[in-house]
Request: fold
Amino acid sequence: MKVLVIGSGGREHALCLKFSQSPKVEKIYCAPGNGGISKIAELVDLTTGDFTELADFAKKKNIDITFVGPESPLSEGIVDFFVSRGLKIVGPAKDASKLESSKIYAKEFMKIYGIPTAPYRSFSSVADALNFLDGWEENKKVVVKADGLAAGKGVYMCDGRKDAHNAVKKMMEDKVLGGAGSNIVIEEHIDGQELSYLIFTDGISYSVMPASQDHKRAEDGDKGLNTGGMGAYSPAPLATNELNEKIERDIIRKVIEGIKAEKLDYKGVLYVGIIMNGNDPYVLEFNCRFGDPETQVLLPLLETDLLDISRAIVDKRLSDINISWKKGAAVCVVLASGGYPENFEKGFEIKGLEDITDSDVFVYHAGTKSENGQIVTSGGRVLGVTAIAGDIKSAVDKVYENVKLVSFENMRYRKDIAKKALSEVEKAQD
Ligand SMILES: Nc1ncnc2c1ncn2[C@@H]1O[C@H](COP(=O)(O)OP(=O)(O)OP(=O)(O)O)[C@@H](O)[C@H]1O
Ligand SMILES: [Mg+2]
Reply:
């Protein structure tokens, strides 16, 4: 079977590597891919928005199945386009991907189907939004969110009324996020730990992956600027059996019911971002694809053949498949360019990659490219190093031992990935 993976980050490297482990996969293409992916897949020089060229390529090369990594081609309708050309593709159709690409749509969906989420109001006029905020307590935290996709920059956490006024003006008047901020959501702030539940679904049945947690902030102790993600781990010890059951019953089942009732064509991965409100899980957001770097900890734990799962999803027979996971834990540490997520330099040689030889350690490339036989840095997030082991503590130790073997100029990474998980484990042992 021939597979085409769309995207170019660490998530797509993890997808390509997983597909390469299937005995049924004879060839993998990745568009556009990166330096690390080029070692296991043939890179296709097309961008994720070139739908016609990508579909022509898939036809010409007799691709059996395409897997979409990032959200923007999904929200622009790549799945609808491929399907209209008779091609099999994993991902939600354009309408269904609104669960991610419109926060207002997602909030309304949650209201209709009784899914717990922070109380909110949506606005399409700046005057109405400011007027609403005039009634907000001066120092009560509030969250202002752009309705549209904003590459992780569309959420402003505000300390109170004045701060929120500024956020609204920036989004709706100054248009700092372009069209994404024309409409907004203002919602109550919840103080709690976050968890991600990803599911495979064919729109009828679903299979929940182990819970994971990522680390969005640039600096240790969850300080500094927001990033695409500096590390992740799974399974999250916070996700006890009891909580998993509650989330499946009160949230995931209701989401699937909603998808069916709304007749959404959802065949792919749905990412449910949760925040704990005391003991109660609330939905923060949906993403309509695998997370990055959550994929880099989930796929190494996946035992079932990803090609079998992908085919079952597109053929709407996911319930025929038994999806199993390795017993242990996985931890991923992202190695980033100094200065990321702001300005950083690129083009530095990456040294020491060949010194990582442990078969339970995976080095996923995100911002790298091959140049004159050398792998050099080409992005903010450069590599994701993942280790799997019997438990979180051993995975943390192993990942940091291996991170030490790699270097490039101005390399930086967080030293406290999964620290929260370890304290959760200690609490449970007390
Ligand atoms: N109501 C809220 N209360 C507390 N924190 C919140 C709230 N809404 C959002 N956040 C914080 O902001 C982050 C981003 O919010 P959200 O997931 O809605 O945006 P996003 O831009 O779609 O994120 P992503 O890039 O992960 O897809 C959350 O992970 C959480 O840390
Ligand atoms: Mg999102």
Residues 241-261 form the longest helix (21 residues).
